[in-house]
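Translate sequence into structure tokens.
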Amino acid sequence: MDPKFLTTTHGQIGCTACHAGNASAADPVGAHKGLVARPSDNPQQACGTCHPDIASTFAKSLHFTTRGLENGL
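Result follows.
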């Protein structure tokens, strides 16, 4: 991870806000249990708590519907 990311709004809320997992685990294996590696695969679930309007419209956008194609999200 780019250390600059930690200074952004998303970087300051912690990994589990978007990626799930276990923030209270004492070791990396426990922390990564239930990890969502690509939260943008399900934007309503991963982003909808903080960004409900954006998450609902994103699912209909070209960025979401062309994912998996070259230059898709």
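Note: Helices lie at 9-12, 16-19, 28-31, 43-47, 52-58, 62-65.
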